Amino acid sequence: MLYYLADYLDKWDFSGVRLLRYVSFRSIMAFVVALLFTTCIGGSIIRYLHKKSIGETIRQLGLEGQQRKHNTPTMGGLIIIAAILLPTLLFCRLNNVYILLMLFTTVMMGLIGFIDDYIKVFKKRKDGLKGKYKIIGQVFTGLVVGMVLYLSPSVTIRENIETYNKEDSRIESVDFSPEEVKSTRTTIPFVKNNDFDYAELIPAKDKDIKQALGWGLYVVIIILIVTFISNCVNLTDGLDGLASGTAAPVGVALLVLAYVSSHISLASYLNIMFIPGTEELVIFAAAFIGATIGFLWFNSFPAQVFMGDTGSLALGGIIGVFSVLIRKELLLPILAGLFIVEGLSSLIQISYFKITRKTTGTGKRIFKMSPLHHHFQKAGDTSIDALIKRPHKTIPENKVTVRFWLISIILAAFAVATLKMR
What we know:
Elements: H1 2-10, H2 23-51, H3 66-69, H4 77-91, H5 97-122, H6 131-151, E1 160-164, E2 171-176, E3 185-187, E4 195-197, H7 207-236, H8 242-262, H9 264-270, H10 279-299, H11 308-325, H12 332-335, H13 337-360, H14 372-377, H15 397-417
Antiparallel strand pairs: 1-2, 3-4
Helix pairs in contact: 2-4, 2-10, 4-5, 4-10, 4-11, 5-6, 5-11, 6-7, 7-11, 7-13, 8-10, 8-11, 8-15
């Protein structure tokens, strides 16, 4: 919005308005606005939630500090979503297809989470929205994103072309294809020729059929990524400050990856594909970082508000779709590794329990409790028999949270470092 206002005011020689044309300045402003919004306006929203008795109902899991959390305001994800949308609308070019997709994802996934929280709080149904309806919403979000990437003429890349030295086969220079093309290519880490085309997985000889089926496969993969990552982040949201604190470093890494992908000189230096238009995603990522860090003002231990599914599903959807848009989704096992481990710990626990109950008559556990962060909280409980017994002593909630933050920071830094690790 302000970007277009700057264009108008520039005609009248208003001093300083040209700053709004720079991605760097708009990113800084987006971060500051998101941070100030959450810290300054968040308190008023929390008081409103408390006044309306929109509190969390805690199940009796016997975990440390659970009773304290009873009736703590939930749906705090509304604060995060508003803090992301406001600076995005203010500082981004709203005709950019990537920004439109991120706005759609944020609102859509936030809406699914809001309905889930609403049912839990006001309808008093502890399971919230039925799982199949959540999945339908997530699949729909991924499908829309995939189809827009397929149909929009604005979604293009310029492939990196390597020139080798004839004597020692080293790369002398990296150029880009002269034309912008639609492609199902993505970036694959740890290999020299780091472009991978999903269409190559299609066993067809006809080039047109191969490309068409490749796009179909690409859309399916996008749907799976959005559904899986959003559910993983949702499962991670179980301790004070855990989901928001671990999402912030991921946002920083996504910002860096978006910036180098949209900067032709840096893309050439790093030998990655150049993606025109993704520079606007840098601003969105800055707002995402500001919103998640600012939310910690109220959500860190002891939490004054919980984000609920409203926030966690939105954060997961944002991470999944953002990585797809900058063609770095194959980095998610590293970048979002913590979230994925959390999600897989629940899946493994449930599957193992059902299998052992069916075969032996008694369900057995791998972890003392899942998701994984609860295992550390129950570590000192000798009454629970689990395959993994370490650690032997219970770890306090705030210590588990901080350690998970550190792991997320390490994984985010490693994900960025893979750009040069080949």
